[in-house]
């Protein structure tokens, strides 16, 4: 291969990883094809659709707009590893998405969940409007968004009424 | 009863944990990646193709052109025998001498990674000789237009006419004629997961295995076998998790066929995943119609006549295997379909031009047919000083009219327009809205309400493609296997792209059989494993695959009870199955578990008397007979706010009242309808594939092609009327088109209602801010 | 599409970065947050031979308040600025504008320096810097120079940056006490690039305005100042008549480029609408 490579070490979903990667490889392709974390998806490669959303050093980012080499030394979480130490928040979101059918094809879902998770961590009681606003960078083509908004609002309400231990 | 229950989907849990498996998640040993060299021009002759630079690049394995594929794959023509005279020019996997749209592929570059394959594609040089681009049907049909296909005299692909009664006389006698010239621009399905395929050819057995993001595995199996010259049983098409389809993925795509041909020639697995730019350039597109229509009214608002002239901007070829005709055909057949009117005159002209191929995307033709008639009714009512809702009501086909065949020639069994409207008006208080509207207008806030009544054609019958000459199954088959444990495996020809038909079928089987849901697993999306079927498109899953499953489950139930009866020395009619137990109907005594019968049936068959030949694996099939479609119907109401200074339209409230017959699972139907409505709102306000006059696509990314996002979409209320079809036991009609079918009409009417104080009107969608302000004369 | 091949260096410190840039100049691209550059690379619209990753240089992540200025390090991200109480207090215009930029995941990576250096004509921060008469620090091995925002933006994606320079910091004057700052734009959807937008700053004075700064985005090949309109607004008391006059003036003052989806006349009209709305808010504040 003609690509120039670099060695990177990083933590992905709690595990230390060291790999040689072509410098032009973006983070989501690295996670998917080099590490097999295929939960993050590729929908546009221009940062517009949100399917590739992953968590980099505790903040959501577009996995297609970060080079794998830029994540050297960083801590990355994908949907496969999300929810560690979050007091059950991600598991509740996943359960509520399931219950309310807040997904169809599932391609946007990991990104949608990570965005919703970030919102509820920063703002435990968002209004519907705030939920729609925060998720407005994640494209879903199947649902009408409403079940997604319902699910996030329902988790928020449930945690207010019965805070997790 | 399991059927009709709000059951969440099993598969969703896997998707929620990031364990879905879409095509691009699969990697095979020694797999090559395909990148395509695409035409930068809308119309050009292909000169010499120089691949030396590309082949010199490390990691590039092959560069193939049309000549290289000649022996590996045949060309095709998208003909349809029900539309004799429709032009069906020959198309090949890679363009041969001429490219006919920007993005048509001319060479295939196979490399060790997609990035390297793209490096190679950049280094292939093609000697292009540009030809004049034909970008609009009016231009395409003009006498001096460049003709796309050498074997055609002009660019007219097809023309049709429908006449019923005497429309001209009715127009002459009318109290008022509403008339409008509509433009519905081109858009597409835009699944979030782009098209993708992995093709693997095993030369020893001459076996092609394909993993493809697709809706119809059996159709693809047949097509790949025929086009690649392989025995059909040596071709297997597997559709794993599919990241959205919407009709986009039930066609043959030339790009994917190239991947199959390359895999065969190189004897290595080949992966092709379309990127977003390729998707916009070369996905199947939809709409792109210019419609001139008139509606004649009596003084009291009775519809006397309707005239529709549809100019259809099709693509460079017909879409294979279905052809592109359906969208135009639906428009001339469905416009005004909810209404009783005797005098109808419709014309269709379909033109080839230098844009990507136009095919069947969700709700084919429906949104246009609906919007045209609904807008004309609002225009007519306004002119006559009548309440537009009352005008609809007085013209609806009602119970006494059914069954009927519409003037457009579509058979309607039992539709519920009035019931849907009544329900809609229970939910939205129009009088109260009018009051608020008037009050807000005094403060320069402009809101509008729009009503749209739609018909939804579903569950296509076997005659449409059977007589058309296509190998497209409208029949569904269901195979049930009672496993030794007593659990049931259900194999269906339908496929699940997330709409949840697997769960619907699971409910039908469990419900009819009398076993818990958890005891039934549905397996779909594999042409080698699953019985022959048509896949999922055109809202056929519940109606056809659901009915096949119902029949199979009834047969299996009968067989289980026959065995139980013989073992228990009872009459089978005295027994039933509940919660997985064989139960005495009279005493409710639970005699034995289904699992016990299964165990005996599989391992101790000698215990069953020899004259009982009740199989524990059963197959049943279902197709409608003698009708081209089933039909559902509904009403949508949209409330929008128009910023008359900026032209931005904000949907505030949206209601869909829908009748899809028997509902298998309201939880799934609701969000299916909402998703469809959002796609319709997208078409009404945002989505547009724009080309410049030279044929360059201007909207090749998500920055330019706008899709509806959570921030702008309203909550969408959904309500149901249930009028089961009597053509099946199950009674389901189908629900996938409804949301999309009516949303454009509802939004168009709502926007026009909002701007009515300015004596302005708009008939072009999407309703962009610039178009709207121009209509308002603001600049 | 996948990015073309390039090489990559991540210098340990600012001198190292400047040194690399001095050696590779035009063949190299700086990358910080990458939210614009990687989009271009993924579409193969850029083909640098070398990416110099300055994203971790702590020297460019300072936020400094002096008596009269706020100095923002080029690597501060949109989310850093959005969360900063200092920005909210001292640069309310910037604070308002950031809410319009893209979506959270993009704001977590995108930097102010990167945005300004990209010079998208519809970028919010560029217009704010122009409205506030900001100064940009451009640093190279040849030394540092300060360039005014008005001189920095030279056309679509074109700036005064020499190939060997890094935009290290932005210096913006703190708002005057009692000053008015209003940022507004029209976009099709939340987070989209604006069809037109406006960054307005002024200080009330005797029923009128002084120190009026009015920058527009999305209506030219770069952010522009509406100078005639600024002068008009300083020329007397603010009232309905002057609002209408100003709205008419600004429509005549801009000449948006041809765009098939959004004709120049439409964008001109929007500028008038935005200004009218802005001035109505000022009038409301006056009467409050």
Proportion of helical residues of chain A: 25-40%
Q: What is the succession of H and E elements of chain A?
A: EEHEEEHHHH
**Approximate shape of chain B:** globular
CATH topology of the largest domain in chain A: Ubiquitin-like (UB roll)
Radius of gyration of chain B: 27 Å
Oligomer designation: heterotrimer
The low-confidence runs of chain B, each spanning 5 or more residues with pLDDT under 50, are none
Distance between the termini of chain B: 60 Å
Supply the CATH class of the largest domain in chain B. Alpha Beta
Summing up helix and strand content along with how strands pair, one would put the structural category of chain B as alpha+beta
Q: Specify the structural class of chain A.
A: alpha+beta
Kindly state the mean pLDDT of chain B as a whole number? 97
Range of strand content of chain A: 15-25%
Q: How would you describe the overall organization of this protein?
A:
The complex is a heterotrimer of chains A (165), B (779) and C (288). Chain A folds into two domains: 5-77, Beta-grasp domain (Ubiquitin-like (UB roll)); 89-161, Orthogonal Bundle (DNA polymerase, domain 1), CATH 1.10.150. Chain A has five helices and five strands. Chain A has helices at residues 27-34, 89-99, 109-122, 128-134, 146-161, and strands at 5-12, 15-22, 53-56, 59-62, 75-77. Chain A is globular, with a radius of gyration of 16 Å. Chain B has 779 residues and is an alpha+beta fold. In chain B, helix 10 (325-334) packs parallel to helix 11 and helix 19 crosses helix 20. Chain B is globular. In chain B, 62% of the residues are buried. The model of chain B has no long low-confidence stretch (mean pLDDT 97). By secondary structure, chain C is of the alpha+beta class. Chain C folds into three domains: 7-53, Uridine Diphospho-n-acetylenolpyruvylglucosamine Reductase, domain 2 (2-Layer Sandwich), CATH 3.30.43; 62-171, Uridine Diphospho-n-acetylenolpyruvylglucosamine Reductase, domain 3 (2-Layer Sandwich), CATH 3.30.465; 180-287, Enolase-like, domain 1. Helices cover 36% and strands 25% of the residues of chain C. In chain C, the strands form four sheets. Chain C has a five-stranded antiparallel beta sheet. Chain C has a four-stranded antiparallel beta sheet with strand order 11-12-13-14. In chain C, a hairpin with a 2-residue loop joins strand 6 and strand 7 (143-148). The mean pLDDT of chain C is 97. Chains in contact: A-B, A-C, B-C.
């Amino acid at each position: 291969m003609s690509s120039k490579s670099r060695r990177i070490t990083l933590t992905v979903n709690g595990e230390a990883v060291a790999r040689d990667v072509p410098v032009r490889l973006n983070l989501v392709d690295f996670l998917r094809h080099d590490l097999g974390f295929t939960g993050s998806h590729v929908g546009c490669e221009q940062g517009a659709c949100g399917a590739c959303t992953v968590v980099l050093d505790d903040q959501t980012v577009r996995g297609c707009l970060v080079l794998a080499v830029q994540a050297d030394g960083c801590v990355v979480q994908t949907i496969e590893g999300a929810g560690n130490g979050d007091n059950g928040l991600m598991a509740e979101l996943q359960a509520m998405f399931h219950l309310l059918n807040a997904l169809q094809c599932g391609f946007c879902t990991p990104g949608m969940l990570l965005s919703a998770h970030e919102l509820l961590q920063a703002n435990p009681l968002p209004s519907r409007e705030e939920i729609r606003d925060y998720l407005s960078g994640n494209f879903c083509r199947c649902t009408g968004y409403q079940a997604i908004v319902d699910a996030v609002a329902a988790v928020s309400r449930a945690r207010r009424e019965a805070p997790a231990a | 009863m399991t059927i009709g229950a709000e059951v969440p989907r099993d598969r969703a849990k896997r998707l929620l944990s990031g364990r879905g498996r879409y095509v691009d998640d699969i990697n095979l040993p020694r797999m090559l990646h395909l990148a395509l060299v695409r035409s930068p021009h809308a119309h050009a002759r292909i000169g010499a193709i120089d691949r030396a630079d590309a082949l010199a690049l490390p990691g590039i394995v092959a560069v193939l052109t049309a000549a290289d594929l000649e022996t590996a794959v045949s060309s095709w023509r998208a003909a349809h025998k029900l539309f004799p005279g429709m032009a069906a020019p020959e198309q090949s996997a890679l363009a041969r001498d001429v490219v006919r749209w920007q993005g048509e592929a001319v060479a295939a570059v196979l490399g060790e990674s997609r990035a390297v394959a793209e490096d190679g594609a950049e280094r292939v040089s093609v000697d292009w000789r540009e030809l004049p681009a034909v970008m609009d049907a009016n231009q395409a049909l003009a006498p001096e237009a460049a003709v796309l296909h050498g074997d055609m005299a002009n660019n007219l692909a097809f023309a049709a006419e429908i006449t019923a009664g005497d429309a001209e006389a009715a127009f002459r006698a009318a109290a008022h004629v509403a008339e409008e010239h509509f433009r519905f621009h081109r858009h597409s399905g835009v699944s979030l997961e782009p098209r993708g395929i992995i093709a693997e050819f095993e030369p020893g057995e001459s076996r092609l295995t394909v993993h493809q993001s697709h809706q119809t595995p059996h159709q693809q199996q047949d097509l790949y076998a025929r086009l690649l010259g392989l025995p059909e049983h040596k071709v297997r098409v597997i559709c794993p998790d599919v990241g959205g389809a919407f009709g986009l993925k039930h066609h043959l795509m030339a790009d994917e066929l190239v991947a199959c041909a390359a895999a065969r020639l190189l004897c290595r697995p080949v992966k092709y995943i379309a990127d977003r730019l390729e998707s916009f350039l070369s996905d199947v597109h939809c709409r792109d119609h210019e419609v001139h229509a008139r509606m004649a009214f009596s003084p009291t608002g009775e519809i006397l006549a309707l005239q529709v002239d549809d100019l259809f901007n099709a693509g460079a070829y017909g879409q294979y295997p279905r052809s592109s005709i359906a969208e135009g055909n639906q428009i001339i057949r469905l416009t005004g379909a909810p209404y009783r009117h005797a005098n109808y005159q419709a014309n269709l002209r379909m033109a080839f031009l230098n844009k990507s191929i136009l095919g069947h995307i969700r709700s084919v033709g429906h949104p246009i047919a609906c919007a045209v008639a609904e807008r004309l009714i609002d225009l007519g009512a306004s002119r006559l000083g009548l309440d537009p809702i009352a005008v609809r009501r007085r013209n609806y086909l009602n119970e006494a009219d059914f069954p009927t065949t519409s003037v457009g020639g579509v058979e309607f069994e039992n539709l519920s327009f009035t019931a849907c409207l009544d329900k809609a008006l229970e939910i939205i208080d129009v009088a109260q809205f009018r009051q608020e509207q008037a009050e807000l207008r005094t403060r320069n806030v402009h809101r509008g309400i729009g009503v749209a009544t739609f018909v939804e054609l579903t569950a296509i019958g076997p005659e449409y493609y059977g007589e058309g000459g296509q190998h497209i199954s409208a029949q569904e088959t269901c195979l049930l296997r009672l496993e030794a444990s007593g659990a049931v495996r259900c194999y269906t020809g339908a496929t699940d792209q997330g709409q949840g038909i697997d769960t619907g079928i699971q409910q039908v089987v469990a419900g009819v059989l009398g076993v818990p849901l958890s005891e039934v697993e549905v397996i779909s999306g594999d042409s080698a494993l699953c019985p022959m079927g048509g896949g999922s498109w055109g809202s056929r899953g519940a109606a056809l695959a659901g009915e096949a499953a119902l029949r199979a489950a009834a047969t299996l139930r009968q067989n289980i009870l026959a065995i139980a009866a013989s073992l228990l020395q009872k009459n089978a009619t005295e027994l039933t199955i509940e919660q997985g137990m064989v139960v005495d109907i009279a005493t409710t005594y639970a005699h034995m578990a289904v699992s016990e019968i299964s165990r005996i049936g599989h391992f101790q068959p000698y215990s069953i008397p020899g004259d009982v030949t009740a199989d524990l694996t059963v197959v049943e099939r279902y197709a409608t007979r003698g009708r081209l479609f089933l039909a559902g119907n509904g009403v949508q109401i949209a409330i929008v706010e128009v910023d008359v200074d900026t032209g931005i339209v904000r949907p505030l409230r949206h209601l869909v009242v829908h009748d899809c017959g028997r509902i298998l699972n309201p939880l799934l139907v609701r969000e299916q309808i909402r998703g469809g409505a959002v796609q319709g709102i997208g078409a009404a306000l945002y989505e547009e594939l724009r080309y410049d006059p030279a044929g360059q696509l201007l909207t090749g990314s998500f920055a330019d092609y706008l899709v509806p996002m959570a921030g702008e979409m309203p909550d969408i209320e959904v309500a149901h009327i249930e009028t089961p079809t009597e053509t099946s036991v199950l009674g389901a009609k189908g629900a996938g088109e409804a949301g999309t079918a009516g949303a454009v009409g509802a939004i168009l009417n709502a926007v026009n209602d909002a701007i009515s104080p300015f004596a302005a009107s708009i008939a072009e969608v999407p309703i962009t801010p610039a178009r709207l302000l121009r209509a308002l004369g603001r600049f | 599409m996948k990015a073309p091949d390039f090489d990559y260096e991540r210098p340990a410190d600012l001198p190292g970065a400047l040194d690399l840039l001095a050696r590779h100049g035009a063949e190299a691209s700086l990358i910080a947050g990458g939210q614009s550059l990687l989009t271009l690379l993924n579409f193969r619209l850029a083909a640098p031979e070398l990416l110099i990753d300055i994203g971790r240089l702590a020297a460019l992540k300072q936020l400094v308040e002096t008596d009269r200025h706020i100095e923002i390090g080029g690597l501060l991200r949109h989310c850093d600025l959005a969360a900063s109480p200092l920005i909210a207090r001292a640069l309310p215009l910037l604070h308002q504008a950031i809410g319009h930029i893209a979506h959270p995941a993009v704001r977590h990576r995108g930097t102010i320096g990167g945005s300004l250096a990209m010079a998208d004509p519809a970028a919010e921060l560029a217009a704010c810097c122009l409205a506030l008469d900001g100064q940009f620090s451009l640093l190279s091995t040849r030394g540092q120079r300060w360039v005014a925002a008005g001189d920095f933006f030279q056309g679509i994606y074109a700036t005064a940056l020499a190939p060997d320079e890094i935009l290290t910091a932005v210096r913006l004057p703190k708002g005057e006490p009692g000053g008015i700052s209003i940022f507004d734009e029209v976009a099709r959807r939340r987070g989209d690039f604006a069809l037109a937008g406006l960054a307005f700053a002024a200080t009330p004075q005797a029923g009128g305005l002084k120190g009026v700064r009015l920058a527009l985005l999305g209506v030219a090949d770069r952010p522009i100042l509406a100078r005639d309109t600024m002068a008009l607004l300083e020329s007397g008391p603010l009232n309905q008549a002057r609002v209408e006059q100003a709205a008419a003036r600004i429509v005549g003052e801009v000449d948006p480029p041809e765009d098939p989806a959004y004709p120049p006349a439409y964008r001109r009209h929007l500028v008038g609408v935005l200004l009218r709305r802005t001035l109505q808010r000022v009038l409301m504040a006056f009467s409050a």
